[in-house]
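## retry 2 of 3
previous attempt timed out at serialization; input unchanged, resubmitting
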Amino acid sequence: MKIDGKHYRSIWLAEDGWSVHIFDQRQFPWETKIVTLVSPDDAAQAISEMWTRGAPMIAMVGAYGFCLGLCQNASDDALAPLYQKLLNTRPTAVNLRWALDKMVALVEPLAPEARAEAAYKFAAALCEEDVELNKAIGHNGLKIIKEISEKKNGETVNILIHCNPGWLATVDYGTATAPIYMAHDAGIKVNVWVDETRPRNQGALLTAYEMQQHGVAHKLITDNAGGHYMQTGQVDMCIVGTDRVTANGDVCNKIGTYLKALAAYDNDVPFYVALPYPTIDYTLNSGADIPIEERDDREVTHMWGLDEDNKVREVKITLSSGANPGFDVTPARLVTAYITDQGVWSDIVPQEQLQVKSA
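## retry succeeded, writing output
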C-alpha cells in the first residue's frame, strides 16, 4: 500500500541482504519511522513493545527474527532458546507459533552452516504468501460488498471496522481492509466507520491513517458509538480481523470486538471475520482455551497525542489504576461468516480440507 503516494510493504530486507526493516507503528500517523532489526533481541523487542503488531505481521517479524538468530548462532543447541525467546513475546496470536514451527521444521534437518540461507529464503516465501492470502481475502470479501451495493442501488455501503486489521498488520493489503480497498478501487461507494479502539487507539492512529492515505471515505467514531450507528440503520456490515480462531469458530480479537458482535447480532447487521488460514488454531476446541494477554495498565491510564506545539506527548487521564486485557473472545454463534483466503465460510472447515501452500 502507499504512504504519501509511495508503495511500501510492512516488512522488507535492508540493502545488506540480512537485516530487516519495519515501521515503528507507535509513531503513526505523526511520523513515518523505519527501524532496522539486526538481532533476534531486536525482533523480540519490536513484537513485545508493539513497534509492530497484527497477527500476520508478528509472524513475519518472528520468522525474520529467527533468521537473525541463526546468523548469530545456528548450532543445534541454539534452536530451542531462539524459538522460545520469540514465541514468548506475545501469547495470544497463533500466527507467530505457526511461523516459528515452520522455521524449526525447515532448519533442523540441515547442517548448521546451511540453516541461515534456507531460513531467509523461507521467510521471504512466507511474506509473499501472506500478500497472496490477503489478496484472496480481498477478492472474496469484495463479492459481499458488491452484493450490498447492488441491493442499495449503488448507494454508499457503510462498513464498521474495529482495531487495525490493515496493511500495517500484515505484509500488504490487510485482512479486513483488503475487501474495502478493492471495493474503493473498483468504484464502489463505501464509507468506513473507524472506531478509535481504546486503549492503544489503533483505529484512530493506524486504520484511519490507512484509509486517509488510500483515499477511502471514513469517519472516526468512539468505541461506544458503533451500537448507535447499527441501531439507527447506518451500518450495512461489520468486518474485523482476528488473532486466533479456534476449531469451533470462536474468534479472539482486539478487546471490544465481542461488544461489536453483540450489537450487530441484536440489530441484524452481518458480522464478518476476515482471516488467512494460519490464524486458525485447530489444537484448541473453543475460545475458552485461548490465553488472553494482560498488558500494562499504563495503556489505559495514559494517552498519546499531538499537542498545540506539534509535539507528540503522553498525558495521564485518571488518578486510578487500570486493568488491561488485550483481547476478548467472540462466540461463533455471533459470526455471520468467515472471509478467508479459501472462500467465505459459514463455519470453520476441518483442517484436512485446507489447501495449504507453505507446508
